[in-house]
Give the backbone structure.
Amino acid sequence: MLLALAEDLPALWNHPSASVETRKRILRTVLKEIIVTAEAGQLHLVLHWQGGDHTRLEVMKNRSGQNRWKTDVATEQLVCELARLLPDHSIAPVLNRLGIRSAKGQTWTQLRVRNFRGVHQIPVYRECERAERHELILSEAASRLGVHKMTVVRLIQDRLLPARQVCAGAPYVIREDDLARPAIRRAIAKGRPVSSDPRQESLSFQ
């Protein structure tokens, strides 16, 4: 049984139940020693296996402050923009809904967002930060106009109210001054105009 297990080492190494400690024990069992020669920007490794075989490897050295876990530039830019709109605990579900994973393939939590910001030197969201830029999110705009949030969404969809969205699932960002547009007040006063879509019908309720 032990010999059979040794012949299928990749299966043991990649098994879902194999912990980090298990993999370390495997390495201690099959490796006799590792000799490392360091050069500028590169490491030369000679792996001496139990039984006499050896393997040569060359790997790039990490620069100062660098590690092998990296996220792409798009994720960094997205978190940077979201951090100007939302606190960490609200950023995490937005990233998860988009299917974005951390550099280690994990889902996002408040702690992981906070650590990510720290590594990439992204400032934390400040309360009233949007107010200083005279920006509103959906619920705030609805409150200012005295309407339901879906009414504001319809105004945006009808292109009457300009709004910006960093990504799908992120909050709409609305300029405070745009709420004062005459077209907005007229649309609210008379209700949403009937759609020009010929498939939509008007129903008479008795």
Q: What stands out?
A: The mean pLDDT is 82. The first helix runs from residue 2 to 7.
